[in-house]
Amino acid sequence: RLIPNDYQGCYVIFVDGCQNVIIEGKGCIYGDKYTHKGDNGQWGHGINIYNSKNFSIRNLSVKDCWGDCIYVGENSESILIDNCCLDNGRRQGVSVTSANHVQISNTIITNIAGSDPQYGIDIEPNEGDTVDNVIINNVQCLNCVGGITSWKSKNARIGKIKISNCIIKGTTAKRAVVLELAEEIEMKDCVVYSGENDAINATRVDKLTLKDNKIISTNESPLNIIKCGRSVTRNNTINKKIAMFFIIHDLLECYINSEIITTGNRIINIRLFRYNIKLRCSIQITYISHLHIET
Predict the structure, then answer these.
(1) Sheet containing 92-96: which strands, arranged edge to edge?
(2) Which of 26, 178, 278, 283 to pair with 5, CA 20 to 30 A apart?
């Protein structure tokens, strides 16, 4: 347990330049979110990993951190976060800012709130850094401000991200899942509950694949794909009670196959703005009174 302090950045476990390390057990790491003596800073992390390789965190709970529950940066490689419970971090559940081959699996992230961005998982390389080959599988982000997000700073790079079998529920951010500025993102077999807000917003992804996802939302535009390169959506289910806008904007190439939109929709709008090169649509829609397609 972290001793309460007024430092802007302070870590319960700090690892720098280590290889072949495992941190595991049934214990819990506690930060000082509620007992912190200062008002500034957002870097009070539970576990901070720098410049390390073949590093595993398993079967742990990390709670109440002034910053992130787990932070991975400084050219780390082959990092595994598995079967962990990350609760009540002030900034993020997990931040990945400079790393290659990171896997986050079988983990529950809850109640992330207090200092922006406030997402369960944040893939966000700093200026000049790279994050590549990230796998997020069987992760639940529950009652966090946001679910999963990717973003990069100037001259940074995001390579491949694969997200599968995840549940995002109870978010309050304008966008539950934000997929931005990456070379390649695949999201499949996930369930996103977004309430009145956007469920998935994908922007400026060179190669985007969304397949076999389920979206439950009352928002007018729960799924937005904007300024992406090659986009493939397949067998996604969008459940709404009132209206659905599936918005595609400024795409180079887009394939929409077997989108299924069900459960008593009264109005469905599918808007396609300024697409070019190729567009294929095969859409099954039930229980509607109006369909409008803009091109």
Answers:
(1) 13-16, 47-50, 68-73, 92-96, 119-123, 146-150, 175-180, 198-203, 223-226, 243-249, 267-273, 291-294
(2) 26
**Angstrom distances, CA of residue 198 to CA of 3, 52, 143, 165, 223:** 39, 36, 15, 19, 7
**Model confidence, pTM:** 0.89
Q: What is the pLDDT along the chain (295 residues), one digit of tens a residue?
A: 888 898 998 999 999 999 999 999 889 999 999 999 988 888 999 999 999 999 999 999 999 999 999 999 999 999 999 999 999 999 999 999 999 999 999 999 999 999 999 999 999 999 999 999 999 999 999 999 999 999 999 999 999 999 999 999 999 999 999 999 999 999 999 999 999 999 999 999 999 999 999 999 888 778 888 888 888 888 888 876 544 556 766 666 666 655 655 544 444 556 666 554 444 554 444 444 444 444 4
